[in-house]
From TrEMBL:
Organism encoding this protein: Malus baccata (Siberian crab apple)
Highest taxon of source: Eukaryota
Keyword NAD in annotation: no
Domain (Myb-like): residue spans on this chain: 10-63, 64-114
SMART domains xref list: SANT
One Gene Ontology molecular-function label: transcription cis-regulatory region binding
UniProt KW keywords: DNA-binding, Nucleus, Repeat, Transcription, Transcription regulation
SUPFAM superfamilies in alphabetical order: Homeodomain-like
Quaternary assembly: Can form complexes with MYC2, MYC3 or MYC4.
A GO cellular component entry from the record: nucleus
Main location: nucleus
Cleaved signal peptide residues: none
Gene3D superfamilies xrefs: Homeodomain-like
Protein name per Swiss-Prot or TrEMBL: Uncharacterized protein
Length: 351
DNA sequence: AATGCACTCAACCGCACATCT
DNA sequence: CAGATGTGCGGTTGAGTGCAT
């Protein structure tokens, strides 16, 4: 469609850095009017020689009272890397998970610090895969979105595995309060973004799973995970020819889920266990519907599901057990961990 | 002290999507 | 329904700053 930029033909508008006076004018206007209203008309009403776009940017990136200034903490940096691994350059979505931080700030941090850090570790900052890896070239055709999706699914599945391990080892009953983190994440911008990705991504449409489950209302996840563990490794999802593979990440109407805590041999829990686990996983999924995902009340889910979600979040947000993020300390040379140990799987799946 | 270079980050630009008319 | 308008997003730029030579 296209449209003319809001301030192209207004040559008298000021550009460049904002003066304290301009900041004050903008702040005063917004506080007096309990909001910015229409950005286009704001400059005139506020007495600013700026275009509305410039005002909005100044407000959202600098003047908004809830903006957290100052350097990023280690935890924030870790979270950004993890989220970038799953979401790619969706700065706004990433920013939504870091209260007080703006997308611009995060983007700058990424471009100036984090990306270089990953490169110095031999990790491709776009794919989060080792730069020199053979599988990288094999997977060259796989979209970043596919990899991100695979990481999500991998994390979720490993969370389930961990849940199962934990429950069988410790019979731990989770606190209610710690159950819904993943659901919150899922219902947040991150999950929303991912759902968009999973429904729009070509891979998702072409995958045997989605084809199968789009034509079948009910399916079993028992085979779901078989290849997922390899997704970030040497195989691609699109290349999976396993007819039994049913891959429909997250496309579950929780109200219709009958979730049985799966049981498996805990000795098999490790890095490989998905093939083993999944043979014993049983849950029945009816009426997969992307838009309905997690839309149902959380309370309708069993505790097991919630616990799984909690664990998934932990896996998503936990760092490798060695927690070796020394490049954040500005010295990549001190980095002892080899790139191979720092594949996305190890980032999100510290089993 | 002067110069050059690298780095940071605020701001701009163009595009895409949502909403309005 | 089509076009206009508003807004958000991601990529890029360039002024300011600090450090090395």
């Amino acid at each position: 469609m296209g449209r003319t930029p809001c301030c192209d033909n207004k040559k008298d508008l000021k550009k460049g850095p904002w003066s304290p006076e301009e900041d004050e004018l903008l702040l005063n206007y917004i506080s007096k009017n309990h909001g910015h209203g229409s950005w286009r008309s704001l400059p005139k009403l506020a007495g600013l020689q700026r275009c509305g776009k410039s005002c909005r940017l100044r407000w959202t990136n600098y003047l908004k009272p809830d903006i957290k200034r100052g350097p990023f903490s280690k935890d924030e940096e870790k979270l950004i890397i993890q989220l970038h691994g799953m979401l790619g350059n969706r700065w706004a979505t990433i920013a939504s998970q870091l209260p007080g931080r703006t997308d611009n700030e995060i983007k700058n941090l990424w471009n100036t610090h984090l990306r270089k850090g990953l490169v110095s570790m031999g990790i491709d900052p776009q794919t989060h895969e080792p730069l020199s890896s053979n599988c990288l070239s094999n997977n060259a055709s796989a979209s970043a979105a596919t990899r991100h999706m695979a990481q999500w699914e991998s994390a979720r599945l490993e969370a389930e595995a961990r849940l199962s391990r934990d429950s069988s080892l410790f019979s731990r009953v989770p606190e209610k309060s710690e159950c819904d983190h993943f659901l919150r994440l899922w219902n947040s911008e991150v999950g929303k973004s991912f759902r968009k990705l999973s429904t729009s991504d070509k891979f998702a449409c072409q995958s045997p799973i989605s084809q199968a489950s789009s034509s079948t209302k009910c399916g079993s996840l028992s085979a779901v995970t078989t290849e997922v563990g390899n997704l970030t490794g040497s195989s691609t999802m699109a290349g999976n020819q396993n007819e039994d593979l049913i891959y429909r990440p997250f496309l579950v109407n929780t109200e219709d889920v009958e979730y049985k805590p799966f049981q498996f041999n805990t000795e098999e829990v490790g890095y490989k266990p998905f093939q083993s686990i999944t043979e014993e996983v049983e849950f029945k999924i009816c009426q997969s519907n992307t838009e309905d995902v997690m839309a149902g009340s959380v309370s309708s889910c069993s505790n097991d599901l919630e616990d799984s979600s909690d664990t998934a979040l932990q896996l998503l947000l936990d760092y490798p057990t060695n927690d070796d993020m020394s490049f954040l300390e500005n010295n990549a040379n001190d980095y002892a961990t080899t790139p191979a140990e720092l594949t996305p799987n190890s980032f999100i799946c510290p089993l």
